[in-house]
Amino acid sequence: MVADARRTSLSSDKEVSRRAVEHQVLNMGPSHPATHGTVKFLIELDGESIVDMDVQVGYLHRAFEKECESGTWYQAIPYTDRLNYNSAILSNLAYCMAVEKLLGCEIPRRGQWIRVLAGELSRTGDHLTRLGAACLELGAMTPFLFGIEARELCWDLQEMLCGARVTSNYIRIGGIQSLIPEGFEDRCEASLLEIDRLLVDFDRIIIKNRVFVDRFRNTGKLSAQRCIEFAITGPLLRAAGIPYDLRKSEPYLVYPEIDFDVPIGTTGDNYDRFLVVQAELMQSLRIIRQCLPVLRKTRGESANVDDPRIRWPAKERVFGRMEELIQQFKGVTEGLRIPAGEAYAAIESPNGELGFYVVSDGSGKPYKVRCRPPSFLNTQPLAEMMRGGMLADIVPTFDMINMIGGECDR
Amino acid sequence: MSSLERVRNLLGDAVLDTHEEHGDTTVLLARESLRSSLRKLRDDPELRFNMLTDLTAVDYLGREPRFEVVYHFLALDLTPHGSEPTRVRARLRVKVGVPEGDCELASACELWASANWMEREVWDMYGIRFAGHPDLRRILLYDEFHGHPLRKDYPKERRQPLIGPRN
Fold first, then answer.
1. In this predicted model, what pLDDT tens digit does every residue of B24-51 receive, in sequence order?
2. Given strand B87-98, what is the order of strands in its sheet?
3. Which one of B58, B84, B93 has the shortest CB-CB distance to A344?
4. Whether domain B3-131 has CATH 3.50.50.60
5. Cys-Cys crosslink for A87: which of A126, A307, A338, A402, Cβ 3.0 to 4.6 Å?
């Protein structure tokens, strides 16, 4: 009797099957609290399972390429800060290396060591943000604070280097912005010890936590083959088991002289991605530790290209001597003249291969500056990673992809 | 054999020009046979360009053909070598001229999944259509946007219609 009554409350069997196949469409974003980045997901849901989704990017587009084309080669450097604002120095570096490739100049060895150190500091900050935020996505506030505290130490060191914490504007075409201040190496060593201590706490609280493991393992999977087809690089590709790291595969700067490993995963799920990023973080700290003695030893050597047409003279000489004043004036007003041609240079950024394709027509302005954004390409297969998964798993997967709006949307 | 020689032998007449400025191997390919040329670059057992890392366009206003679509390919050696990092076998830049009057090019989506969003971006920014693309919509800009902003004749100061929220 009861069963019959239940049956009549639904109009018919046909109705039941119609409801079963009816999917719900959900708008998530563009400013959803869990998508830290302005991005919109249009999700087709069957209950809580994702049937399909459309990822819509572009909300942070601010005409990076168009702006670069309207200024001088130097004026594009601050714009590159705002690509991946978590690791601005590495964006500066990729752009400057592409321009230097066109110029055919090589910077002195001290400059290269400083670039490696600054870049690894930047990478450390980026990875810490990603790991900390990943815990926050699951509702764990404490590890996030450990991560942010460690990132503060990195940013303090960056501030010592270039006076800015986030948008560093540190790397210059033909060298670096300013000399390394006195006492930097000691402060750096002390900070590294502090970061180590915080990472131990971080590790203890999160890595064996049942909730964390259950939410991360077997979610957001993407096979190595699909990663290659989607041109995914960086920790996402390495978590799928392919040890492609530009610092080893196509070494630049002084990386061949530095001892470090390329951690890889096996399954390509979120848990492996987390572990790979965490292991890379330790490798970055290891690289920084190897830079410090070299910097101590080479203190006093020049870090910039000795050519006033490329790297302007030091300020004290500009203010005191006629020739240098003219060089600075010409450099600022006319811009650096880059020989006509095209070049592509790429570095390993925290998200993968960050490349710049630059075209010069021989004038003082870039003809074309194309940023090959790892975030953009890494976000592309999100729909494929999530199909068949649960709605709630979008949030941690999206964090491990580490889509940075500034870089993805340019 | 260098990868440039191999590409020349493989593609024959489809190669219009080559250069190796700054160590970047570059080939200019014919537009008509682009799809088959790209397929050969991917499937040739010696070259095997398995990753399309970058796809963009450049507007050479006043030159014929006006646009150049630029592909950056990467050949990764995927056979494991113990604990060695993955080797990069070769990189290749492929350029294809696209005239203003007939702004269309064959899509590479079937060959490399990564082409999908990048081709959408080139359509969005330069107005070059990709024949055979499964879903050629604007990607970074919104549907109501007029014109294609990275064309050199698009003035930087131009205003665009403001749109309200939609659902």
1. 889 999 888 889 999 988 898 888 899 9
2. B15-19, B26-29, B87-98, B67-77, B51-59
3. B93
4. no
5. A126
